[in-house]
Amino acid sequence: MLKGLAITPPVVGRISIGRVVERNGKRLPEKDDQFTLTSQVQNREGWVLHPLDEALRKDAGGKLRAIPVRLLFNDPALNLRADYSLFDRTTGRPVCVGNGESCRRMTPSGVESLPCPGPQECAFSNGECKAYARLNVLIGDGEEDALGSFVLRTTSFNTIRTLAARMAYYSALSGGQLASLPLELKLRGKSTTMSYRAPIYYVDLVLRTGFTLETAIAEARERAVRRTEAGIDLVAMEAAARQGFANGAFEDLEEDVPAVVEEFFPETTVTPGPTAVPSGLKGKLEAKVGQLPQESAA
């Protein structure tokens, strides 16, 4: 095995709730109110749609706001990998990845393990580090490719927290049978004072339409037994996945990082000179909104 190369789940497509558009000569991320399934190929117009996008959109009657999925692993931490990430916009390479306690940072002498205070307290990141997560799922029941996953990348705290909580609860309730549960990704909206009550969209993970908690868990246990009897060794697969993730210092390939930086880590414009202290609730909220990360899973 090549050392330094993270071996990640095979990816055949992307799931997003936004896109990159050109505005005033700059390419900027733009939020959306629906899912889009794309291939891993881009042309001048952007990412090429995956054939499943049209099929699922037709079944949904237009806007795609729910996607039937299965998880690859029973271990929630293998399905969803979240960390604090800092990228070098000049080279497009990852610079530092941490979890709030420790980090792996690229230095002139190589990758070093250092303490990680989190993005708000880190002087090294200069405010450019933020939460970044990847979720791998199978669309439907993985009929066409049992290992070919779609990846959802996100920097939304709402999405990361919701997905992590759902998987932890479903894992506990089902006796650890996450990979056998019939689930669906669902797009939800919320509004806050910080968003001026405009909707902020995030991704949730719920039981598939038509299932109650009881019927979903019963089906998951039956499916797990069938897979074991068929000789499918999920424990061995999870061990191989952990070894693959640990084989590299950073998960994303260098060829994929420029698109990730453009979509999730857009360059912020800083105005030089003294900044006036905002007065009143409205002024303080406006200043706070300007500091918020992009609340989008795409």
What profile does the largest beta sheet have? 12 strands, mixed
**pLDDT < 50 stretches:** 269-296
- Helix content range: 25-40%
Give the CA-based shape: globular
What gyration radius follows from the Cα positions, in whole Å? 20 Å
Domain count: the total is 1
Work out the strand percent: 25-35%
What is the string of helix and strand elements?
EEEHEHEEEEEEHEEHHHH
Instruction: Give the count of helical stretches.
Output: 7
Keywords: Hydrolase
InterPro entries: Gp3-like
Protein name: Hydrolase or metal-binding protein
GO molecular function, one term: hydrolase activity
Describe the protein in words.
By secondary structure, the protein is α+β, with helices and mostly antiparallel strands. It has helices at residues 51-60, 76-79, 157-173, 213-229, 234-246, 257-264, 280-291; strands at residues 11-23, 26-43, 46-49, 66-71, 80-88, 93-98, 102-107, 110-115, 130-139, 149-154, 183-190, 200-207. Residues 269-296 have low confidence and may be disordered. Strands 1, 2, 3, 4, 5, 6, 7, 8, 9, 10, 11 and 12 form a 12-stranded mixed β-sheet that branches. It is globular and about 50 Å long. It contains 7 helices and 12 strands. It is 27% helix and 34% strand. The protein has one domain (11-291).
